[in-house]
Amino acid sequence: MSMSEKTVSSSLQQLEQQLADKNPALLQAFRLYHELDQVAYNLGLIGIDDSLANKTSWSPIITVIGDASSGKIEFINHYLNSTPPAIDPHSIHAQFTVLIYRDDQSPMTLPGTAVDGDPRFPFFHISERLEQLEKGASRNINSYLELKTNNSNQLKDKTIILAPGFAANQKQAETELLREHASTLSDLVFVFFDARQSTLEDFRSSLSPFLKHSARSNNPSKYIYVINEPSNNTESVDLNNWKQQLIHLGLEAGQFFVLSESTTSTQQAIEQKLTNIDVESAYRILNNLQQHITEFDTVVVHEVQKGIDLWKDRAHFTLTIVLSFIALTLVAGEIQMGLLAVLLDPFVASVALFLLIVCLIPVHIYSSKVHAKFIAKKLAERQVELGLIENLPALFNKSITLWRILLPIRQPVGWTSDVKDTLDMLTTRAKGLVQSLNNTFNTSSATPSASKEETFLNL
Q1: Matching CATH number, 61-275, of 3.40.50.300, 3.40.50.970, 1.10.238.10, 3.40.50.920
Q2: Of 23, 300, 377, 439, which has the highest C-beta tally within 10 A?
Q3: Are 208 and 250 contacting, i.e. CB atoms less than 8 angstroms apart?
């Protein structure tokens, strides 16, 4: 097992410098990730250039979901206040658009491969998960994602994800995966509805799973449901009706706004949430750090452990079948030729036992390696399914040594009490960073009380 020092890539070194200037608690969180990287590297779960710090976004992420008529594009363009507008209001947006800052007057649009292949973006390697849903989807990643740049100061140190609404489409399963993935990573999720939409029943198949997903979030208050009232709308918004429809479809918690040109207080309340997003982002990063340390044992090593247990069980079962076949052969030999009397001779019995062991060892080794190949493939699929950076098959294959085949050793190689103690220490230090972060944000940065236009909070 390699015990060499895990290096920090140049891009992560730049991030470390930014955090040093931004927030000492986040800087310490980054350094804890580096210590966690060392553990993962020693186990063979990540490569020399990989980092578990890439499992989280170190800058705020805002996801805006809605159909074309919901007002989501106008909301983003108003917030960014750039010329030309960040999003063309007349274009059709069927993809997930990732908006990032670029200090250039000329905006750029890049294909989805730019997002899928860069660990700095929230859809890193999402093509692998799409491939599990539909074969060939990874080759069509550009039909799901795109990257746009804008020089608005509001985008500095932020990422905005513009997501399609809940209207049915041919790629509903893939869209649902991307939507839930984006909202899970985000610090704020704005869900826009057109006030002229009479009923949400048409969206049940896609909206209901999303609402149930949001209910499982460890921060359900980050979901903000906005009923956008166009200026030409002749009927007033029935808030109770919207509230009951969403609850009926699975909503359990969130914040609810009605947005129109006349409700300036609502606009100010939403803008205040955007202003305070750095606070939400910092706590999300620390929460993710604690979660990733915990999941190192409960998810990553646990999945490999299950693979080793299955491998051992299958190898032993194969060996049992072989022994059963030999036993049946001996029984048949006894019936036909009285073979048992021959085997009762001590010398013959010793030679037969020796030959049996010599023959069974290579059979056991070969069958174990065959089973290991199938289980390693299943672990690779499981890794993609769970969205893990950690290479589960790598740790599994390291544990398939000759002695581990022959001896009853089941725990993954390198998974020692010292490693467990290190993870416990990292957990304790990560929890202490929350208090440090509390001291960083004083009362002046706290979110003010909600406006009167905020009509529905935390059901």
Answers
A1: 3.40.50.300
A2: 300
A3: yes
